[in-house]
C-alpha cells in the first residue's frame, strides 16, 4: 500500500508541477547535460 501511495504522489506531483514534490531540478538537468543525454532539457539562461 505504501508503494502505491508513493507512486501516486510522485506522478501527481510531477503532472501538477507541485513545488518540492519533484526531483527534477536544476542540478538534475545539469547532470544530464554533463552525461550527454537529453541536452534539449538543459537549463537556459535568459
From TrEMBL:
It comes from the Eukaryota. This is Uncharacterized protein.
Amino acid at each position: 500500500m505504501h508503494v502505491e501511495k508513493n507512486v501516486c504522489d510522485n506522478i501527481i506531483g510531477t503532472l501538477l508541477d507541485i513545488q518540492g514534490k519533484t526531483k527534477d531540478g536544476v542540478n538534475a538537468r545539469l547532470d544530464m547535460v554533463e552525461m550527454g543525454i537529453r541536452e534539449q532539457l538543459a537549463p537556459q539562461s535568459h
